[in-house]
Write a structure and sequence with these properties.
- The complex is a heterodimer.
- Chain A is mostly helical.
- Chain A is built from 7 helices and 2 strands.
- Chain B is mainly alpha-helical.
- Chain B is built from 5 helices and 4 strands.
- In chain B, α1 runs antiparallel to α5 and α2 runs parallel beside α4.
- The longest helix of chain B has 135 residues.
- The chains are: A mainly alpha, B mainly alpha.
- At the A-B interface, β2, α1, α2, α3 and α4 of A face α1 of B.
């Protein structure tokens, strides 16, 4: 572990481009997820086995979450929301591996995730409403709200990034401090708590991404709404 | 705290790549199999619905066919019952008719037998009376077979209708006098004299002997007979008795 968890370590260089350990860890996470996906979906059958049932349960749950939030066909948003959830979950849980820092404990990864959500929000808003229709959403409920809505676009993306970063980074911080003070076994309950926090944060990030996209595409179909569980979670985390 | 833009850039690219990878290897295959299963389930449900509808229709048809067969069976039974009833009536009628015929035949046979018995009894009685009379006449004088019958012959001729009498008497040569025995010349002359008024004839009437008369004198020709004998009387008596008994 670094002296400061906020600093990044360069693993190697590709020419003049430094490749940090965060990126390398992300590659491992990506490789693990992809390998698992390839292996688990290699023999999909009409009559599902136990593993396939779990995969289908994940997809169905993601679809239900999207549909419940956006009141729309979940297919166009399934990949983004599902990938965000699985990646953040896997990245958060890499904290269990010794000498590995979760990529989400660094601002660059969280910023990248928030940036992707920001771009996806604009993309889906324009795809569904058209460019003008999407721009009109900024003048709702009144043109007076245009500056606030523009600021909201930035701030909520920023909050998305900071929320994930703060929660994961704090967990890593706490475990590092406790580990340095109390030895080997004491951090285990905190690490278990960190697992829960990581899962919750992955869920929150995915749900908020869904809500933001839903708000962007929700014109004419009613505003997107938070799922019942999502409301409480956002209040607590905000 | 520093922000590494290269890391940010790499992470954005990584997330993009991961989106593609998971879309390619996880979400699309799983979503496809779910959709296929949903479609298959919908198709199976639809097929099941069609099969159920077909089964319902088949059941309705079977029920209608069963009702039709039942109605047909009832009709057949009713027709068979009616036909059996008709045949029964016909058979009973035929049997009754045959029984009536048999009874009628038996009754006719019985009546015929009774009639034959009666006739035979009368015939025997008649034969007996003839035999008795013949015996009695044998014990009487020979004149008793002739006396008095000439006058009765004239009365019998008078009792006939004019046409009958003319027909009998018109026989000419064939007309003959019938007696139960040979007549003596005196007897023949006396008889001829007595009947001369009623029987006009040239010369002597030919005489024929017929012992079956027992007693009496008769006139016979090819056209008829004037009965005037004890045998004829006995016959008439027998017929009268038979008529009385039959009545």
């Amino acid at each position: 572990m670094n002296d400061s968890p906020l600093s990044v370590q360069v693993a190697f260089h590709i020419g003049p481009v430094p490749v940090t350990t965060i990126v390398v860890t992300t590659w491992f996470v990506m490789a693990g997820l992809t390998l698992a996906a390839v292996l688990l979906t290699r023999r999909l059958r009409f009559v599902a086995g136990s593993v396939q049932t779990v995969l289908e349960l994940i997809v169905i749950t993601v679809d239900a979450q999207i549909e419940g939030t956006m009141q729309r066909d979940p297919a166009p948003y399934r990949v983004l929301v599902g990938t965000l959830f699985l990646f953040i979950l896997a990245a958060n849980w890499t904290s269990l591996v010794p000498h590995i820092e979760p990529p989400t404990a660094h601002l660059e990864t969280d910023a990248a995730l928030a940036f992707v959500v920001f771009v996806a929000t604009i993309y889906h808003g324009i795809r569904v409403n058209g460019p003008l229709g999407y721009l009109k959403t900024f003048a709702e409920p009144s043109w007076v709200m245009i500056p606030l809505n523009l600021i909201e676009q930035i701030t909520r993306t920023f909050s998305l990034m900071v929320r994930l970063f703060g929660n994961v980074m704090s967990g890593v911080f706490v475990i590092g401090i406790v580990l340095s003070l109390a030895g080997l076994l004491v951090p285990i309950p905190l690490m278990a708590l960190d697992l829960l926090t990581g899962a919750v944060q992955a869920y929150i990030f995915a749900v908020l991404a869904t809500v933001f996209i839903g708000a962007a595409v929700g014109e004419g179909n009613g505003a997107a709404r938070l799922p019942e569980s999502g409301k409480d979670i956002r209040k607590e985390t905000d | 705290m520093e922000f590494d833009w290269w890391t940010f850039f790499f992470e954005v690219v990584n997330i993009g790549v991961l989106l593609w990878l998971l879309a390619r290897f996880l979400f699309r295959p799983v979503a496809r199999i779910i959709d296929e299963r949903k479609a298959e389930t919908a198709r199976v449900l639809e097929d099941a619905g069609k099969a159920r509808k077909a089964a319902d229709e088949a059941e309705a048809e079977a029920r209608a066919e069963r009702d039709r067969i039942h109605a047909e069976r009832v009709d057949l039974l009713e027709n068979a019952r009616a036909e059996a009833e008709a045949q029964k009536k016909d058979l009973l009628m035929k049997a009754r008719r045959q029984a009536d015929e048999v009874v009628g035949k038996v009754r006719a046979a019985a009546e015929q037998a009774a009639e034959e018995e009666r006739e035979q009894r009368i015939r025997r009685a008649s034969e007996l009376s003839v035999a008795i009379t013949r015996r009695l006449m044998d014990s009487l004088p020979a004149d008793a077979r002739i006396d008095g019958y000439a006058e009765r012959l004239v009365e019998a001729l008078a009792a006939l209708g004019a046409d009958e009498r003319a027909a009998v008497l018109a026989a000419g040569e064939d007309l003959r006098l019938v007696a139960p025995r040979e007549l003596s010349k005196a007897e023949l002359a006396a008889v001829t004299k007595k009947i001369a008024s009623a029987v006009p004839h040239d010369g002597q009437l030919p005489v024929e002997v017929d012992p079956s008369l027992i007693a009496g004198l008769e006139l016979r020709s090819r056209h008829g007979v004037v009965h005037n004998s004890l045998a004829a009387d006995l016959g008439r008596v027998a017929e009268a008795l038979a008529s009385d008994e039959q009545a």
